[in-house]
Amino acid sequence: MNEIDEFLRANKPAVHDDPTFLLETRRRLEAVEGIKAEVDRQRSRGRLALVFALAIGLAVGVLATAIAFLYPMDAASAGQGLWDSIRLFLTTWKQYLLLPVAILAIAFGLVLSRGSRSAVRL
Amino acid sequence: MTQERFISLVRAEQEPLRRFLLALCCGDAALADDIAQDALVRAYVASGSFLGLSKFSTWLFRIAYNCYIDHCRKAKPEQTSVDDALEIPAAESSDSAFRYQQLYRAMDRLPEKEKASISLFYFEDRSIKEIAAILGIPQGTVKYHLSMGRTHLKQHIQL
Fold first, then answer.
1. Model ipTM?
2. pTM of the shown model
3. What tens digit of pLDDT does each residue of A92-106 get?
4. Cα(A120)–Cα(A43) distance, rounded to whole angstroms?
């Protein structure tokens, strides 16, 4: 085995001195930094959209509750026509009808932020 | 780890790293450098996870070896022959060029773990412990691969 040991030690692969190697490494690392910065930017944009959607949802919810309490509907004073029936239905159930709007706004915000994250991943 | 710190660490390791990959790629310098660049980018991205539990070079060589294995898995269908790919240094005499050719041809016939063990032990002067850390195998297995590698090389190299 000594012969093969000597052969291997005497014939180490020779690497050419390449000054462009580190320059290329530096260029690639700069590109990585650029991608990292873009990912961070997208993440903060997603977070902002989420906060915005939550704020809108909260405001809509508060507004809906306030309207419901400030303008209570007197069922006895409502007319008997179709239009009046619709108005009565909407007025009676408005807080429950506006709730899905608020939920949709929040869901939209969540989808928006998730969508921008997956776009970055691609 | 800052980019400048990383570059300064890589500057000291680039020659051994490229030589290790050159041996694994059986003399294909362009491919070896390409894998080395890929490994350096991966190492930089993961530099936050380097806790200093091992030497930086051991950690870097492990990443480079994994990159090489990934490349082998991807490139299996379109393998080129060693004769097409190998690059003998122009300054070498015909005698040493022949020896390199012989060495790379013989290395090309070795299984990956044997090739890596031989390269690290003989060309990079790494200890068995370090080789085990780089390849992610027990020290006894490294010794086995070295022994088998030597036996296989002896069959293919005319001494």
1. 0.75
2. 0.69
3. 888 788 888 888 888
4. 9
